[in-house]
Amino acid sequence: MPRDGYRPRYRRGTARTGAAVVLALGATLLAGCSAEEGPPTLTWYINPDAGGQAAIAEKCTEAAGGEYRIETSLLPNDAASQREQLARRLAAGDSSLDIMSLDPPFIPELAEPGFLAPVPDAVAQRTTQNVVEGALTGATWKDKLVAVPFWANTQLLWYRKSVAEAAGLDMTKPVTWQQLIDAAAKEDKFLGVQGQRGESMTVWLNALVESAGGHILENPEAKADQIELGLDSKAGTEAAQVISTIGKDGLGGPGLPTQDENNSMILFQGDKGSFMVNWPFVWPATNASVEDGTLDASLIKDIGWTLYPRMNEGEQSAPPLGGINLGVGAASKHPDLAYAAIECIVTPENQAEYFISNGNPPSNTEAYNDPRIKDSFPMADTIRESLELSAPRPQTVFYNEVSTSLQQNFAPPDQVDPAITPQETSDFIVSVLRGENLL
Amino acid sequence: MSTTTETPTLPSGQAGRTGRRRAIQQFSERAKAERRLGWWLAGPAFVIMLAVTAYPILQALYDSLFSYRLTAPDERTFIGLGNYGVVLTDVVWWRDLGVTLLITVVTVVVELILGFALALVMHKALKSVRGWLRTAILVPYGIITVVSAFAWFYMFDINSGFVNTWFNWVPGIDPDLNWFAGTWTSLAVIMASEIWKTTPFISLLLLAGLAQVPDELTEAAEVDGASWWQRMRRVILPNMKAAIMVAVLFRALDAFRIFDNVFIMTNGAFNTEVLSLLAYRTSIGRLEIGLGSAVSVLLFACVLLICFIAIKLFKVDLASQRGDK
């Protein structure tokens, strides 16, 4: 019977295939083992950028001379999702979190439960020299350095020279929000601000409150049921007044309720653009658009920059502070190597290189001495000055609750009532922190 | 089965006629073996189901009784039904429930009407184009929800969208209309996207129902002089009631759990938050495992309630869909 004769052969064939698969699998596993025998691999969880962090990782791997290898792993796009992923992994004791690019407001939440490996004193000393004050504050929790400052960000006031001139504003002198509001209204232009219900709203509100001399939280290090808010104050009301006026008078344009940093840049580049508060990324981005031919070359010459607008004449402004600090996971198998790698990553040379290639300003003032920086970023001195003035967002374990509550109450801007919103928001945050309300 | 060769028995069809008791005795060996085989076949799937559904559900039930924050594991305290009290007395929960129900009802009703029309077209289409037509209608259903949500978002977005310029001539639409800056305009886009995406699913289920209606019935009605509408109302619809109810139940349960479209288009801003998003934001965003589990458990209870209402009150019989009745 040919059929019977066929079957065993088929079975043997299957067995042979099976054996081949097992062998292949075994070979792969062995290959995996042999790879482990090389230098230890440190995983660096990075926020998305233009490839700068990956380049630094490569550079530091080479510099380590076989002591360790740095591999980068990409985190989600926005800061909130990055925090979600890192917090979950840290809580679960993921040992692959050797180095993490951390957004400063979320550091207390991770430092408090001991999710971050302690920074060795020697490393702390070496990596904090010449670092701007704001960046240090963002990396500190309860008077102890818990992460290493990498790059620091701040917002500038960007303006169209033609509009400022037409409105009769002298941009060599400090300007106030009221002046900008009047100028935009007079010239029938739109102000570039971020009115979206998102982290950018907290950034804006915090800068306004701090510039007016107040604080959103009076005692950010307190426990959930003891936190006191400073929003229901003169500073809070003044901040709400600015947001409300821009929203109600339509000065932010029709897109304001959904406007983030990128959208406000697009608005600023258009015909209705006038003044905008935004991060320095807008400079390389606008230059790139001009090079691509999507924007007119004359636009570049029309763009000016200065320090963040003031709330009151004669009082310094407190520009927003951003950036990235580097932390090491408590469950990391190689914390010493991770801190050695971090020391390599944050050298002033690497920070300067990163600024030029990716547009993210250094936290180390020494890096600003690199002559190449002035060519790519003519506003580098303004950025450095702004960093010295900048104020961080509330450093609290409950930052997510506080920030989300602020966003829910202050967005959209046209719904803000300076007489009611600050007080309502304060009450709301208190009840959320006490666990009496959903968020 | 090997037992059948060892003890020749009557075919099962005759067993009923010759006496049930004897049959059970005769078949007990074989029945046992079959049952054992059944367990061997279904067992692994059953265990996996327990592991991936029953275990998380029970864990969520347990967690919901604690005040428990992921970043403060040492401060976990038992608070009984406290979390449920917070959720059920909060206006946010009831607002989100209202939005979720609104989206469910509107999308299911519109999808049912559109889906039925599409099913009729597919059913009656010429043989030569039938394959193409079905494929074309099914395309939206094959697209990943997140992708379709982004497509709809960018279509309507005030910065990148083309809808405002293309439909400038429609009263109420102008280039300055910010769709995602208002509750009703946002919900309209969210629901339109949802309807576009899942109408094919309903139309497919309804097509199966249409195919089950015997042609003899409609032909007889036609011979008797029934108009198209009369045939539809008296013959076709009553005969595919089971298919319609199954389609409605499946879609309602699906629509009630809507997440992707809202998450991507508004992220709950302007009072467009739905219950799944609230559960996500509480558990994953705030890392409040206790409170978030309570929201999830209540969401699960709502889904169970919809099932109960559909099966008990509207007498949806899932088995009849297979033609067992």
Question: Explain this structure to me?
Answer:
The complex is a heterodimer of chains A (439) and B (325). With 439 residues, chain A is α/β, with parallel strands linked by helices. Helices cover 48% and strands 12% of the residues of chain A. Chain A has 19 helices and eleven strands. In chain A, strand 4 and strand 5 form a beta hairpin. The longest helix of chain A is centred in the first third of the chain and has 35 residues, at 2-36. Chain B is 73% helix and 1% strand. Chain B contains 15 helices and two strands. Chain B has a two-stranded antiparallel sheet. Chain B is flat and about 75 Å long. Chain B starts with a helix and ends in a 12-residue tail after the last helix. The chains are: A alpha/beta (439), B mainly alpha (325). Chain A binds chain B through residues 80, 84, 87-88, 91, 109-110, 112-113, 115, 196-198, 254-258, 263, 266, 397, 400-401, 404, 411-412, 435-439, and chain B through 67, 70-74, 86-87, 90, 92-93, 157-159, 176-178, 180-181, 267, 269-270, 278, 281-282, 284-287, 291, 295.
Q: Encode the helix/strand succession of chain A as letters.
A: HEHEHEHHHEEEEHHEHHHEHHEEHHHHHH
The overall pLDDT of chain B, averaged over residues, is 87
Strand order of the largest sheet of chain B: 1-2
Count of individual domains of chain A: 2
| Poorly predicted segments of chain A | 1-15, 25-35
CATH architecture of the largest domain in chain B: Orthogonal Bundle
Question: How is the main sheet of chain A built?
Answer: 5 strands, mixed
Shape of chain A: globular
Derived from helix and strand composition plus strand pairing, the structural class of chain B reads mainly alpha
Question: Summarize this, please?
Answer:
The complex is a heterodimer of chains A (439) and B (325). Chain A folds into two domains: 174 residues, 3-Layer(aba) Sandwich (D-Maltodextrin-Binding Protein, domain 2), CATH 3.40.190; 204 residues, D-Maltodextrin-Binding Protein, domain 2. Helices cover 48% and strands 12% of the residues of chain A.
